[in-house]
Amino acid sequence: MDLRAIAMGLAFALIWSSAFSSARIIVAAAPPIASLALRFAISGAVGVILARMFGQNWNLSRAQWRSVIIFGICQNALYLGLNFVAMQWIEASLAAIIASSMPLIVAAANWVIFREKLPVMGVLGLMAGFGGVALIMTQRLGGGVDPLGVTLCLIGAVALAVATLTVRGASSAGSGGVLMIVGLQMLVGSAVLLPFALIFETLEVQWSWQLLAAFTYTVFAPGLLATWIWFLLVQRIGATRGATFHFLNPFFGVAIAAAILGERLGWVDILGVTIIAAGILAVQLARAAR
Q1: What is the 3-state secondary structure of the chain?
Q2: Exposed (0-12), middle (13-18) or buried (19+): which is 281, by Cβ within 10 Å?
Q3: What pLDDT does 100 receive?
Q4: What's the gap between Cα 46 and its chain centre?
């Protein structure tokens, strides 16, 4: 793994983790589903326009169109949609911690369902990672955290894991291009979310510079930049090695939430995050070694 790949992985993890804090600011002042649908519409349109300017097209292969549709629904609409709704009731740090379990869910499914061989270090990493998540959730639920919000985040993590397991080998840009694939995925997510926003939400917004700054950041940084970096990273070093950087997400997620939102972290949270990160790293190193 060269220095460029390491820099890309660190940038992806930092931007991805910061999305929970910016989302928390947004949902505190605006309807979550409508906000996310608008974010995807803008991000998707910008992505497609930039892709066309760079000479990319939407003549994608069947596997790539399948990737666009599945990730548009599972990642953008379900995973992020459920997280946006949940963060009306739970803190950004907890949402980031739960979302960080996605690589563990993928590894567990590959091991149990698809019979992928996993070394002892990987099995121990799975047990440690899920144990860390359980430790934090038990402590937070005992402290009065809304169980519905936690449940929505868990369902979202499972939805993203299902998408990751379903779409394999479709990260290659092929005749289209990375930006085009990213942009189209965003537009699919917006189209899926829009009817739910129109039916279930009332458009009431508490305008402020914090809301505008958080929304703008979410549109262009986690929305386009992080996804683009991830696709390039996977093309450069492969999905298994690229996923190793997910072990940084719990650390970055809770640190950014504490710095920006002032969310309080106890020693149980710090211990749980450390255990989760160690578990994710062990799993990914074991898979990469295999």
Answers
A1: CCHHHHHHHHHHHHHHHHHHHHHHHHHCCCCHHHHHHHHHHHHHHHHHHHHHHCCCCCCCCHHHHHHHHHHHHHHHHHHHHHHHHHCCCCCHHHHHHHHCCHHHHHHHHHHHCCCCCCCHHHHHHHHHHHHHHHHHHHHHHHCCCCHHHHHHHHHHHHHHHHHHHHCCCCCCCCCCCHHHHHHHHHHHHHHHHHHHHHHHCCCCCCCCHHHHHHHHHHHHHHHHHHHHHHHHHHHHHCHHHHHHHHHHHHHHHHHHHHHHHCCCCCHHHHHHHHHHHHHHHHHHHHHHHC
A2: buried
A3: 86
A4: 20
Please state, in angstroms and rounded to a whole number, the distance separating the CA atoms of residues 65 and 71. 10
Closest residue by Cα to residue 159 from 248, 76, 281, 68: 76
Reported as a single tens digit per residue, the pLDDT across 25-78 is: 999 999 999 999 999 999 999 999 999 998 888 888 888 888 899 989 998 999
Which residue, chain included where needed, has tokens 């005992």? 142
- Tens of pLDDT along 138-196? 888 877 788 899 999 999 999 988 887 776 554 554 545 778 888 999 999 999 999 99
Task: State which amino acid sits at residue 46.
Answer: V
Mean pLDDT across the chain: 88
6-25: buried (b, 16+ CB within 10 Å) or exposed (e) per residue? Answer: eebbebbbbbbbbbbbbbbb
pLDDT, tens only, 113-148: 878 888 889 889 999 999 998 898 888 887 778 889
Measured CA to CA, the distance from residue 17 to residue 96 in angstroms comes to 7
